[in-house]
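Exercise 7b. Backbone tokens:
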């Protein structure tokens, strides 16, 4: 059985949740999937480039006892660090950069060139680097996987890839941003905007810079990722009509809720012979609209396909589970599932 050397770049909400999940699933990974693992690299701007090819102390990392962690010299850049950690897989879990997807794209490029699989929750890499990184992965016979980037926790990209051959999306409508949904719900309950943002941050679902959520860009990036990967219609962000929830007036939000037509940040894509059009904007929705019933950090994606009139995927994310906030935990599951898929693709060769 192969022991995989895993390197984590970004050790925030999702990185920590992934490490906890890997610990929980160690025996299952070994017994069901013949995968053994050790953590050989962790890096963030604050921590620097930590590596040890014999394995880093996972419990000390999770307890933030960084001074107890034994490391080797790992240089001060991603390529030297991947080499020092003898990486077989990189988990790229750094913050979203809406404008360029960097430096995450460079991290993934480095991992693939090193010969490691690259798995990410960072949607900037898909919007700004999808074609280049897929081609590089194919040349290197490694996998670039990104299931967690849209509706972290739910299968979207892998579902289409594995179970919906020759199906073409003609319309998509969904609620793709948990943070704005939590913020709107808090405002409906009479909380201030600042308090509402803080609640989303405490749940671990807000972006490092929450203005990406509030101003609609996180949802727009997800829209662009769906169009690029699933609709073969890369739509640049500047061609998406984007309006966030910042300007929504509390009284207006509360009145809409009282009237049974709550505001939701709706994402929509339509493709026809004239091309592709997409928007992200807050809309009051009638009670019978399935999007109106999506609560808290939950999300919904509704696809209309040429072969299926309607396919809806709902991801229920209650705020907290026994071990804390569930948003990052369900996202970590998608990352783990991608890792298993990457290894299985090697095992099939
Ligand atoms: N949280 C969620 O529910 C979900 C998150 N995602 C995506 O997952 C990614 C991580 O999210 P999350 O864990 O919540 O974010 P956090 O803000 O909690 O953590 C981000 C981590 O990345 C590190 N980081 C940021 N920039 C760099 C850089 N240039 N070089 C090295 N390290 C860097 C930060 O550490 P430091 O500041 O020390 O560098 C920190 O450890 C994001 O791209 C997000 O969009 C996707 C789906 C759901
Ligand atoms: N900030 C995002 C996290 C997942 O992508 C959200 O709120 O949906």
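Sequence design result:
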């Amino acid at each position: 059985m192969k022991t995989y050397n895993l390197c984590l770049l970004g050790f925030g909400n999702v990185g920590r949740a992934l490490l906890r999940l890997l610990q929980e699933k160690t025996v299952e990974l070994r017994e069901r999937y013949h995968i053994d693992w050790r953590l050989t690299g962790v890096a963030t701007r604050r921590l620097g480039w930590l590596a040890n090819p014999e394995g880093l102390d996972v419990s000390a990392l999770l307890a933030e006892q960084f001074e107890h962690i034994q490391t080797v010299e790992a240089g001060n850049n991603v390529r030297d660090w991947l080499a020092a950690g003898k990486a077989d897989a990189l988990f790229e879990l750094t913050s979203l950069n809406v404008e360029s997807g960097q430096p995450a794209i460079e991290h993934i490029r480095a991992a693939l060139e090193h010969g490691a699989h690259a798995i990410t929750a960072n949607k900037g890499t898909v919007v700004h680097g999808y074609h280049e990184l897929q081609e590089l992965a194919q040349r290197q016979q490694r996998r670039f996987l990104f299931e967690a980037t849209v509706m972290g926790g739910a299968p979207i990209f892998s579902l289409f890839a594995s179970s919906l051959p020759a199906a073409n999306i003609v319309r998509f409508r969904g609620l793709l941003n948990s943070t704005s949904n939590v913020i709107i719900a808090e405002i409906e309950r009479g909380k201030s905007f600042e308090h509402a943002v803080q609640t989303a941050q405490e749940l671990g679902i807000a972006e490092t810079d929450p203005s990406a959520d509030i101003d609609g860009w996180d949802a727009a990036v997800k829209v662009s990722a769906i169009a690029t990967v699933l609709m073969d219609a890369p739509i640049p962000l500047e061609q998406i009509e984007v309006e966030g929830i910042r300007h929504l007036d509390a009284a207006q939000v509360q009145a809409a809720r009282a009237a049974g037509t709550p505001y939701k940040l709706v994402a929509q894509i339509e493709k026809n012979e004239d091309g592709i059009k997409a928007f992200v904007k807050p809309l009051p929705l009638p009670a019978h609209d399935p999007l109106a019933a999506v609560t808290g950090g939950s999300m919904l994606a509704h696809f209309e396909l040429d072969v299926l009139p309607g396919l809806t995927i709902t991801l229920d994310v209650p705020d907290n589970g026994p071990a804390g906030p569930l948003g990052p935990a369900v996202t970590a599951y998608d990352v783990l599932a991608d890792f298993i898929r990457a290894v299985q693709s090697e095992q099939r060769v």
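Instructor comment: The radius of gyration is 20 Å. Residues 160-317 form a domain with the Dihydrodipicolinate Reductase; domain 2 fold (CATH 3.30.360.10).
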